[in-house]
Amino acid sequence: MKQIITPNELSVRMHSGERFQIVDVRSAREYAEGHLPGALNLPLEEVEARIDDVQPHDPVVVVCWSGKRAGMACEQLDPHRGNLTVLSGGTEAWIDAGLPTVATAHARLPLMRQVHIAAGLLILAGTMLSLMVSALWIGLAMFVGAGLFIAGATGFCGMGLLLAKMPWNRPAPTCAPTPVEAR
After folding, report:
1. Which of 64, 74, 157, 175 is catalytic?
2. Which fold has domain 2-96?
3. Where are the beta strands (DSSP E) in 84-176?
4. Which of 18, 91, 97, 149 is spaced 20 to 30 A from 103 at the CA atom?
Protein backbone atom coordinates (compact mmCIF):
# COMPACT_ATOMS: atom_id res chain seq x y z
CA MET A 1 0.00 0.00 0.00
CA LYS A 2 1.48 3.29 -1.06
CA GLN A 3 1.59 6.41 1.03
CA ILE A 4 2.08 10.03 -0.05
CA ILE A 5 4.63 12.51 1.25
CA THR A 6 5.10 16.20 0.44
CA PRO A 7 8.48 17.55 -0.67
CA ASN A 8 8.90 19.64 2.49
CA GLU A 9 8.00 16.72 4.74
CA LEU A 10 10.47 14.44 2.93
CA SER A 11 13.21 17.08 3.15
CA VAL A 12 12.68 17.54 6.90
CA ARG A 13 12.69 13.79 7.51
CA MET A 14 15.82 13.30 5.38
CA HIS A 15 17.65 16.08 7.25
CA SER A 16 16.66 14.53 10.59
CA GLY A 17 18.62 11.43 9.57
CA GLU A 18 15.73 9.19 8.58
CA ARG A 19 16.81 6.70 5.92
CA PHE A 20 14.99 6.38 2.61
CA GLN A 21 15.76 4.88 -0.75
CA ILE A 22 14.65 7.42 -3.32
CA VAL A 23 13.78 5.81 -6.66
CA ASP A 24 13.35 8.16 -9.63
CA VAL A 25 11.32 6.43 -12.35
CA ARG A 26 11.84 9.07 -15.04
CA SER A 27 13.96 8.50 -18.15
CA ALA A 28 17.73 8.75 -17.91
CA ARG A 29 17.60 12.10 -19.71
CA GLU A 30 15.03 13.58 -17.31
CA TYR A 31 17.02 12.22 -14.35
CA ALA A 32 20.29 13.73 -15.66
CA GLU A 33 18.69 17.15 -16.03
CA GLY A 34 17.84 17.28 -12.31
CA HIS A 35 16.93 14.82 -9.58
CA LEU A 36 16.67 14.57 -5.81
CA PRO A 37 20.04 14.09 -4.08
CA GLY A 38 20.85 10.42 -3.65
CA ALA A 39 18.08 9.19 -5.96
CA LEU A 40 18.47 5.94 -7.90
CA ASN A 41 17.40 6.18 -11.55
CA LEU A 42 15.11 3.28 -12.37
CA PRO A 43 13.08 4.21 -15.46
CA LEU A 44 9.46 3.06 -15.31
CA GLU A 45 9.88 0.63 -18.20
CA GLU A 46 12.70 -1.12 -16.28
CA VAL A 47 11.01 -1.41 -12.87
CA GLU A 48 9.85 -5.02 -13.19
CA ALA A 49 13.22 -6.19 -14.55
CA ARG A 50 15.19 -4.38 -11.83
CA ILE A 51 13.14 -5.16 -8.70
CA ASP A 52 16.34 -6.27 -6.93
CA ASP A 53 17.75 -2.73 -7.23
CA VAL A 54 15.10 -1.58 -4.78
CA GLN A 55 16.26 -2.15 -1.22
CA PRO A 56 14.04 -4.46 0.80
CA HIS A 57 14.72 -2.82 4.18
CA ASP A 58 14.55 0.98 3.93
CA PRO A 59 11.32 2.82 3.13
CA VAL A 60 11.15 3.60 -0.60
CA VAL A 61 10.11 7.01 -1.92
CA VAL A 62 9.15 6.79 -5.59
CA VAL A 63 9.56 9.97 -7.63
CA CYS A 64 8.77 11.08 -11.17
CA TRP A 65 8.11 14.55 -12.61
CA SER A 66 4.57 15.06 -11.34
CA GLY A 67 3.59 11.88 -9.48
CA LYS A 68 1.68 9.86 -12.09
CA ARG A 69 4.50 7.53 -13.19
CA ALA A 70 5.55 7.13 -9.56
CA GLY A 71 2.07 5.79 -8.77
CA MET A 72 2.33 3.36 -11.69
CA ALA A 73 5.75 2.20 -10.47
CA CYS A 74 4.34 1.62 -6.98
CA GLU A 75 1.71 -0.70 -8.47
CA GLN A 76 4.52 -2.75 -10.02
CA LEU A 77 6.69 -2.68 -6.88
CA ASP A 78 3.94 -3.32 -4.32
CA PRO A 79 3.88 -7.14 -4.65
CA HIS A 80 7.68 -7.24 -4.14
CA ARG A 81 8.47 -4.42 -1.74
CA GLY A 82 6.46 -2.90 1.05
CA ASN A 83 6.68 0.54 2.61
CA LEU A 84 6.28 2.51 -0.62
CA THR A 85 5.69 6.25 -0.67
CA VAL A 86 5.03 8.58 -3.61
CA LEU A 87 6.46 12.09 -3.56
CA SER A 88 3.40 14.31 -3.99
CA GLY A 89 3.83 16.49 -7.06
CA GLY A 90 7.11 14.76 -7.91
CA THR A 91 10.34 16.48 -8.83
CA GLU A 92 8.38 19.46 -10.13
CA ALA A 93 6.95 20.11 -6.65
CA TRP A 94 10.37 19.48 -5.08
CA ILE A 95 11.91 22.17 -7.31
CA ASP A 96 8.96 24.54 -6.75
CA ALA A 97 9.55 24.17 -3.00
CA GLY A 98 13.09 25.46 -3.54
CA LEU A 99 14.72 22.20 -2.48
CA PRO A 100 18.09 21.14 -3.91
CA THR A 101 18.45 18.99 -7.00
CA VAL A 102 21.44 17.37 -8.61
CA ALA A 103 22.07 17.74 -12.34
CA THR A 104 24.55 15.17 -13.59
CA ALA A 105 24.80 16.47 -17.15
CA HIS A 106 22.80 17.69 -20.04
CA ALA A 107 21.93 14.30 -21.48
CA ARG A 108 21.79 13.63 -25.17
CA LEU A 109 18.50 12.93 -26.84
CA PRO A 110 18.01 9.15 -26.55
CA LEU A 111 19.00 7.29 -29.70
CA MET A 112 15.56 5.79 -30.29
CA ARG A 113 13.99 9.26 -30.16
CA GLN A 114 16.54 10.38 -32.74
CA VAL A 115 15.49 7.41 -34.91
CA HIS A 116 11.81 8.33 -34.51
CA ILE A 117 12.49 11.95 -35.45
CA ALA A 118 14.65 11.07 -38.47
CA ALA A 119 12.27 8.37 -39.72
CA GLY A 120 9.26 10.62 -39.29
CA LEU A 121 10.92 13.47 -41.17
CA LEU A 122 12.03 11.18 -44.01
CA ILE A 123 8.57 9.66 -44.36
CA LEU A 124 6.97 13.11 -44.28
CA ALA A 125 9.48 14.46 -46.82
CA GLY A 126 9.02 11.48 -49.14
CA THR A 127 5.24 11.76 -48.98
CA MET A 128 5.22 15.53 -49.52
CA LEU A 129 7.71 15.34 -52.40
CA SER A 130 5.66 12.58 -54.05
CA LEU A 131 2.60 14.84 -53.91
CA MET A 132 4.32 18.02 -55.06
CA VAL A 133 7.21 16.93 -57.31
CA SER A 134 7.08 13.35 -58.53
CA ALA A 135 5.32 10.18 -57.47
CA LEU A 136 8.72 8.47 -57.42
CA TRP A 137 9.51 10.14 -54.07
CA ILE A 138 6.98 7.83 -52.37
CA GLY A 139 9.78 5.25 -52.57
CA LEU A 140 11.65 7.13 -49.86
CA ALA A 141 8.70 6.85 -47.49
CA MET A 142 8.28 3.17 -48.37
CA PHE A 143 12.01 2.49 -47.83
CA VAL A 144 11.97 4.10 -44.37
CA GLY A 145 8.72 2.33 -43.46
CA ALA A 146 10.26 -1.02 -44.46
CA GLY A 147 13.32 -0.22 -42.35
CA LEU A 148 11.13 0.49 -39.33
CA PHE A 149 9.31 -2.79 -39.84
CA ILE A 150 12.59 -4.73 -40.07
CA ALA A 151 13.93 -2.96 -36.96
CA GLY A 152 10.81 -3.90 -35.02
CA ALA A 153 10.77 -7.50 -36.25
CA THR A 154 14.48 -8.28 -35.90
CA GLY A 155 15.88 -5.78 -33.39
CA PHE A 156 18.40 -4.56 -35.99
CA CYS A 157 18.10 -0.85 -36.70
CA GLY A 158 20.37 0.44 -39.42
CA MET A 159 19.28 4.03 -38.87
CA GLY A 160 20.08 3.69 -35.16
CA LEU A 161 23.57 2.41 -35.98
CA LEU A 162 24.10 5.30 -38.39
CA LEU A 163 22.85 7.90 -35.91
CA ALA A 164 25.03 6.43 -33.14
CA LYS A 165 28.10 7.36 -35.22
CA MET A 166 27.09 11.01 -35.55
CA PRO A 167 29.29 13.59 -33.79
CA TRP A 168 26.61 14.64 -31.32
CA ASN A 169 26.34 11.03 -30.06
CA ARG A 170 30.04 10.54 -29.47
CA PRO A 171 31.43 10.90 -25.97
CA ALA A 172 32.90 14.28 -25.14
CA PRO A 173 36.69 14.30 -25.34
CA THR A 174 38.39 14.17 -22.00
CA CYS A 175 41.57 15.97 -21.17
CA ALA A 176 44.38 13.49 -20.75
CA PRO A 177 46.71 14.27 -17.89
CA THR A 178 50.02 15.65 -19.02
CA PRO A 179 52.91 13.33 -18.25
CA VAL A 180 55.18 14.40 -15.45
CA GLU A 181 58.64 15.03 -16.80
CA ALA A 182 61.49 13.16 -15.17
CA ARG A 183 63.84 15.39 -13.23
Report:
1. 64
2. Oxidized Rhodanese; domain 1 (3.40.250)
3. 84-87
4. 18
